[in-house]
């Protein structure tokens, strides 16, 4: 049973949490400097990525136009009759296509069908069907389905009295998002939570149709509901919370679209995740909630709370679907991902964060103060460890307890185990959790089972797990070496005791920064992402379910999905204030009004989201960021920026350049001044001269600054990519499985595609298009296989002794050539290996 925090603990932690929400706010004097925790400390805290099999699932894009393409071709508007007709035509074309493929031997059973934002379907494909589809005249491309995980950590709270009242400086008098619908593509939502009452519409469940988008319980472990969407919904539109707590847009409506949740994993259990094909199905539902083919009922804003780690591809089915949603006037907001810093050339942006039409959001950490505690670990009189460490929980008293181990298997099945006499196995002890089992659920289960404290293998950031988990139960991370000693001693039957002291508050030197876990750009094509940053550490919100005493639950969460939810709320308020603006106009205002605050563009895009500036802004730029791609020193690059006047008056706009990290790049523009009547647009040519560009890998960055009288400045960040030169195809090998290559005993061709370089800050390089060609005697016979959007890894293909047309090859020597197209404009790379057929 949870009891209130002491007044002292409340004051300490309320101050620390409130500071977390105001980037650049003033703070008190430091008593000490807390230990620095980088993105490694957030691993596990930000969710466990349990392996999941995609089981040969693919998304197939077709060339005939989608509804979005038809509307775009019609100038952006269409009648209900036209939309329904175009939707019906797309479905009919798909039926004809599937019938034609079935007649030539393809076995295709679509799991999801798409006609609105894209034209295509998803299905499990055997090798024969995959080959037939990939070479078909009506197929635009076949893409792998990836797994997407929630981009946050839950930090469940207790009685709610310790929570800040709102995310500071993101309120506008008279605007609360009323009349704006935000589609929340995530897990199910708990609509019974009073904080969300009357804000949640009847939703859509693309995983288990018929649930209405309601949060589902864990299939086998009681007390583990789907949390994520309830938390994000509270950030967006919560209202009437404790002590005045409310969301960014308390007047907005939430349309829950359940695209993720408890689903089977590769370990025989269940994990919370989504898939590419499910998210696209969610976008289809968000633009057409009643499914009648007419999208006039589309949500104004869509928030995708799930991310595909490191999948920064710009031209796959999900980025195309987000662009289609924009054509249907729905703005999509996505998290940047929670993988932290990366190499100097390309970053760690998660999919679909590379989508040009998406507003991709990084997480800002504005905490100026962080709670710490003194931790003493001993075995008898022997002191194993004594240090000040960041506090992940919220104790109101000191704790001394014997340590007990919980292994990953126990954690996955539920920690609240009982001895035969009915007593708790962890009550009265300090529970040591393995890093792989670390999550909000396991921490909460340990504390609910009576644990006096929770210890974690490895560093843990301050405030990682709650203001109240419950009161009096500290959560701290220990050095891995110390944990190894504890495990060895306990295994030998030697008791280990931990003592945790009172709370101290230390000043953080990095207050007002991008969070260590927040993913950085660039995307795989060299484009600048994220677009902006928003508060994403210890954001107060609702939690599903109720406490043992019946009280509703509140807590705080961290992650780029929390930052994206803040931005979705800002977008809803902006949409209410600017009802005539379309999706791309809202996109331009959100990004252009962000405030630089001395933040790195590859981590924060245009800067920190600023609702007041967005509402007051009179012009916007499209695109909202200028990406020149990979530098070519002998030749510059140029892009066109379109500036639009959305005010009620004539404006004179001047264009300037702020070089942030130019690396020798000279940016010019023509014209330098434009005059715009109300509603008028003008184009500006922006050129990057890269003749003096530094050869050092990284991104050259800056921003265009558009000024117009007393209107807030508009910031348009720009970037030039200088990637690390790596091998995108390597380590080819050919292994026979029999004396003769055949359908039954194929040869196995294996190789490494893509690359991961470095160690502390690795650079991930994907491959946009991978082709396997068959050659003989210097002549290309044909294409054996093609794969798109390939992440780094070792891949294996079977060679059966057949030609690209399926005919048996004549005996002799052949060459297999593997070609990698990087997708960023740099040279294609290839490698080859001899292949004998006998």
Model description:
The protein has 838 residues and is of the alpha+beta class. It is built from 15 helices and 45 strands. Strands 7, 8, 9, 12, 14, 15, 24 and 25 form an 8-stranded mixed β-sheet that branches. Strands 16, 17, 18, 19, 20, 21, 22 and 23 form an 8-stranded mixed β-sheet that branches. Helix 9 (408-413) links the parallel strand 18 (399-405) and strand 19 (430-433). Helix 3 crosses helix 8 and helix 6 runs parallel beside helix 12 (560-577). The protein is globular. The chain starts with 6 loop residues before the first helix and ends with a strand. 56% of the residues are buried. Mean pLDDT is 85; it is low at 1-40 and 154-166.
Compose a concise summary of this entry.
The protein is 18% helix and 33% strand.
Secondary structure elements and pairings:
Elements: H1 7-20, H2 39-42, E1 57-62, H3 67-73, H4 80-103, E2 112-114, E3 120-124, H5 127-134, E4 139-144, E5 147-150, E6 153-156, E7 181-186, E8 204-205, H6 228-237, E9 253-258, E10 260-264, E11 270-275, H7 276-287, E12 301-304, E13 306-307, H8 317-327, E14 331-335, E15 359-365, E16 369-379, E17 382-390, E18 399-405, H9 408-413, E19 430-433, H10 440-448, E20 453-457, E21 475-478, H11 480-491, E22 497-500, E23 504-507, E24 513-514, E25 532-535, E26 539-546, E27 552-558, H12 560-577, H13 583-592, H14 601-604, H15 611-616, E28 619-622, E29 626-630, E30 637-645, E31 651-661, E32 666-670, E33 673-676, E34 681-689, E35 698-708, E36 711-722, E37 729-736, E38 747-753, E39 755-757, E40 763-765, E41 767-776, E42 779-790, E43 793-799, E44 812-821, E45 829-837
Parallel strand pairs: 7-9, 7-12, 8-9, 12-14, 14-15, 15-25, 18-19, 19-20, 20-21, 29-36
Antiparallel strand pairs: 1-3, 1-4, 2-3, 5-11, 5-13, 6-27, 10-11, 15-24, 16-17, 16-22, 16-23, 18-22, 26-27, 28-30, 30-34, 31-33, 31-35, 32-34, 35-36, 37-38, 38-43, 39-40, 41-42, 41-44, 44-45
Helix pairs in contact: 3-8, 6-12, 7-8
């Amino acid at each position: 049973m949870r009891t209130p925090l002491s007044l002292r603990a409340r004051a300490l932690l309320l101050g620390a949490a409130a500071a977390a929400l105001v980037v650049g706010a003033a703070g008190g004097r430091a008593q000490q400097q807390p230990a620095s925790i980088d993105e490694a400390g957030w691993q596990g805290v930000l969710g466990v990525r349990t392996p999941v099999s995609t089981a040969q699932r693919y998304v197939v894009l077709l060339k005939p136009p989608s509804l979005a393409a038809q509307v775009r071709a019609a100038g952006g508007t269409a009648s209900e009759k036209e939309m329904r007709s175009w939707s019906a035509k797309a479905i009919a074309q798909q039926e004809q296509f599937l019938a034609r493929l079935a007649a030539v031997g393809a076995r295709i059973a679509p799991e999801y069908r798409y006609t609105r934002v894209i034209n295509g379907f998803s299905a499990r494909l055997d090798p024969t069907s995959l080959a037939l589809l990939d070479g078909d005249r009506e197929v635009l491309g076949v893409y792998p389905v990836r797994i997407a995980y929630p981009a946050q950590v839950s930090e469940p709270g207790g009685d709610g009295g310790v929570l800040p009242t709102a995310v500071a400086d993101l309120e506008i008098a008279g605007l609360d998002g009323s009349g704006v619908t935000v589609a929340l593509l995530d897990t199910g939502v708990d609509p019974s939570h009073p904080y969300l009452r009357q804000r949640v519409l009847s939703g859509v469940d693309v995983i288990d149709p018929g649930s209405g988008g309601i949060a589902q319980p864990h299939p086998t472990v009681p007390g583990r509901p789907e949390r994520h969407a309830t938390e994000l919904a509270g950030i967006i539109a919560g209202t009437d919370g404790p002590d005045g707590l409310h969301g960014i847009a308390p007047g907005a409506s939430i349309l829950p679209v359940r695209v993720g949740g408890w689903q089977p994993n590769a370990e025989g259990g269940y994990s919370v995740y989504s898939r590419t094909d499910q998210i696209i199905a969610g976008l289809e539902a968000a633009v057409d909630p009643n499914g009648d083919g007419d999208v006039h009922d589309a949500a104004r804003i869509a928030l995708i709370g799930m991310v595909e780690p490191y999948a920064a591809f710009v031209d796959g089915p999900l980025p195309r679907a987000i662009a289609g949603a924009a054509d249907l006037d729905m703005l999509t907001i996505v998290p940047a991902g929670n993988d932290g810093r990366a190499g100097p050339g390309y970053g760690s942006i998660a999919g679909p964060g590379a989508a040009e039409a998406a507003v991709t959001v990084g997480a800002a950490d504005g905490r100026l103060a962080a709670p710490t505690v003194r931790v003493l670990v001993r075995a008898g009189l022997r002191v194993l460890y004594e240090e000040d460490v960041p506090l992940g929980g919220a104790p109101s008293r000191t704790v001394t307890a014997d340590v007990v181990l919980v292994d990953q298997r126990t954690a996955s099945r539920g920690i609240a185990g009982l001895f035969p006499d009915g007593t708790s196995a962890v009550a009265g002890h300090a529970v040591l959790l393995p890093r792989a089992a670390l999550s909000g659920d396991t921490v909460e289960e340990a504390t609910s089972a009576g644990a006096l404290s929770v210890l974690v293998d490895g560093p843990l950031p301050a405030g990682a797990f709650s203001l109240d988990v419950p009161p009096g139960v500290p959560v701290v991370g220990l050095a891995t070496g110390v944990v190894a000693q504890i495990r060895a001693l306990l295994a030998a039957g030697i008791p280990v005791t931990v003592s945790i002291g009172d709370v101290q508050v230390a000043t953080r030197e990095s207050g007002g920064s991008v969070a260590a876990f927040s993913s950085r750009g660039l995307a795989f094509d060299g484009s600048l992402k994220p677009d902006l940053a928003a508060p994403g550490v210890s954001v107060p919100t609702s939690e599903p379910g109720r406490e043992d005493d019946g009280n509703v639950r509140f807590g705080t969460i961290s992650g780029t999905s929390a930052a994206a939810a803040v931005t979705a709320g800002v977008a809803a308020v902006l949409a209410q204030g600017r009802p005539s603006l379309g999706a791309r106009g809202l996109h331009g205002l959100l990004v252009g009004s962000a405030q630089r605050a001395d933040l790195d563009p590859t981590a924060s895009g245009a800067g920190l989201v600023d609702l007041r500036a967005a509402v007051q802004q009179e012009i916007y730029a499209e695109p909202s960021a200028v990406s020149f791609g990979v530098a070519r020193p002998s030749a510059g690059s140029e892009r066109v920026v379109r500036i639009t006047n959305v005010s009620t008056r004539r404006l004179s706009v001047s264009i300037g350049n702020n070089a942030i990290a130019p690396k020798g790049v000279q940016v010019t523009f023509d014209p330098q001044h434009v005059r715009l009547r109300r509603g008028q647009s003008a184009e500006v040519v922006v050129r990057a001269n890269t003749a003096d560009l530094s050869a050092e890998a990284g991104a050259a960055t800056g921003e265009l600054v558009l000024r117009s009288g007393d209107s807030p400045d508009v910031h348009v960040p720009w970037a030039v990519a200088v990637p690390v030169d790596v091998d995108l195809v390597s380590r080819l090998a050919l292994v026979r499985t029999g004396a003769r290559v055949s359908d039954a005993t194929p040869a196995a061709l294996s190789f490494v595609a893509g690359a991961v370089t470095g160690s502390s800050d690795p650079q991930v390089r994907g491959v946009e298009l991978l082709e396997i060609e068959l050659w003989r005697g210097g002549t290309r016979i044909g294409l054996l296989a093609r794969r798109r959007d390939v992440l780094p890894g070792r891949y294996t293909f079977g060679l059966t002794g057949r030609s690209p047309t399926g005919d048996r090859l004549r005996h002799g020597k052949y060459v297999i050539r593997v070609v990698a197209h990087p997708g960023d404009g740099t040279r294609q790379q290839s490698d080859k290996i001899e292949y004998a057929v006998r």
